[in-house]
Amino acid sequence: MQETRQNSPSEPNPRVSYNGRVNFLRVVFALIFLGIAVKLVFVQGVKGFYYQRVAKDQYESRVILHANRGLIYDRNGSLIVSNSYGFSYAADPQLLNPDQKSKLAAEFASVFNMPASSFMSRLNGKSRFVWLARNVSPAQSAALQNFKMYGLIRLQEQQRLYPYGTSAGQVLGFTNVDGKGASGVEMEFDSLLAGTNGYEIMQRDGLGRKMPSVDYPKVDPVPGCNIQLTLDMNIEQIVEQELEAGVQRTGAASATAVFMDPNTGEILAMANYPSFDPSEYDKYSNADARDRAITDVFEPGSTFKVVTASAALEEGIETPNDLIFAENGRYTLYGRVIQDFERTGGWISFRRAVELSSNVVFSKVGRKIGSDKFYRYARDFGFGAPTGIGLPGEVPGELTKPYEWSKVSLPFMSFGYGVLVTTLQMAQAYCAIADGGILMKPYIIDKIVSPDNQVLFQNSPMQIRRVVTPDVAQTLTGMFVDVVEHGTGEEARIPDLLIAGKTGTAQKLVDGKYSKKYYHASFCGFFPVPNPAIVGYIMVDSPMKGYTGGMVAAPIFKKIAERIYGIMSRRTNDLTNGEIRMVSNGGNGQSVGKASASESPSGIVSDGVRVPDVAFLDYGTAAAILENLGLAPSSSGHRNLVVMSESPAPGTMVKKGSIVSIKTADASRVKKMPDFTGTSVRNATSFLLSAGVPFRVVGSGKIVAQTPRAGQPISKNVTVVINCENKEFNVSGLY
User: Before 648, cis peptide (omega within 30)?
Assistant: First the structure.
């Protein structure tokens, strides 16, 4: 009989234990499967797009296609800003070990002449991309050409190229390392010049090489717009060279100049010294990069007398021949001393006060004008407001309102103190006189052209307002000619070119006091007269050798005018072999006829003196010419009268010390037209300016015909036309 053994209740059941383990594993695997399923749903559903993008980033990349920056031209079509391509260097520090970093830093320190520590500080960072050098020079790039290291990145980048170097550097401005305009025209028109970048999708193959993807469109870059300026780089370079020479000659701190076309308001040159090279902007300070012609203000001194003189003549307060007591050059007003730089004596005419730049006379004239009228004329000339030239950083200057003035404000403003101006504002004001009384808006952008050669913007001359009548503008022009011919601006005088101009000298404020060591010396001139084509204003800061506008700035203007005149297509040749030169209302040193071999430029010959032609000149000018040649006028006369005849006849040889008999008359009371045939433009225009008769000159040289003819009645409502030899002054060759 077989026994059947049964487990006791205290012993475990092996089947139950087995089933439990199986069930436990089933649960574990079920949970694992569930987790995987949830993860798959999350990855493919919730984060599906993200991981697709990450995957694409591993084998696809977007490469930026940089747009070509727009070009900049001058008025003649000369390319003054273009593009080139250079190299920049970067590194991935995570791919470099310490020894490689040290070697790399040492190499770059040697090439760029910088401390190795400056490169090590960048390489020790946590970034995967750091710049080492941007837009390096060709020489630096050549030095690094054979230096290769895993982790060093060499990139080709667009660089801005300035073929003219420092010429117009502050006007053009510069672009920073990222190609963005940072000053000047480059900054003001950055959005137009920059263009629009494109892109291309690149894919990596199995070897990691990039190739264009045919599955994605390529977006081509759109080049920037091109800009044409009104600048003439021929004139710009002349102005800059002479400005630099003038600063070095006088030991000045700096100088600024603006040359304009008075008939349109176009800027032909805008120069600063010290200069600025946009291609090496990192070597200059921010102060060096600013265009001081529009950003810096100064008290102009006597060049501001254009406002006082204009108001006095326009309002009928003074005429050129009115006499004013000059206090012998020293005048105390409200406890303040007003002093003349030149010896002015006692009673002098208003014309003579302009010639000698009498502060005393102008302080008196300013008080006659009155605060409200003076302020209105100053505002009408554009002072106290920006010109709107369209360049960054322009300031409005400072012209306070009359209710803010003290007792001495008006008399001192009358000769250029107590007002702050820019060089451009001063040039604009004199353009108004040169243009017959019309204030033009200055502009430097001629046109903007799209990449497909469509003109997007075309500038044109804009009249702002009339500030004085044509008659007053013509009278002032004659008075400014006097300044150059035999006044404070004689250093700007050119033998065969008629120039009108005005000097200015102003003490600088140093520590709240007017210095007797530091000055602003300035000169503004325009030529040729009549029919001015160019206006130029020059301001020299703190000259050490000489300090007045006549001593410092006028010679710079003369050299500039001579060179501009020399590049014109046709020249006036009035001073050929000693012939009469073309000048206007006053002057000395004039010679007449052909000079003999023994004759000096002054007209003095070895055995006598040739009588000069002083007909139609004012008496003071005629007397000065005769006395300079060792001759004497027959009798004293009022300098505001003009010479109608002389004896002996012009050209006659007489002994030194001989008396020349001259007859004078008040030009404003002469009823019939004199005969100008055979005389110089200088003499004829002297009479017409004194008589207040409008006139126009055709050609230059000796006068061959006139309308109205000699003997016909003079009318101030009829323009006199003077026809000269075929020696036309033509400025078309400049532009």
Answer: yes
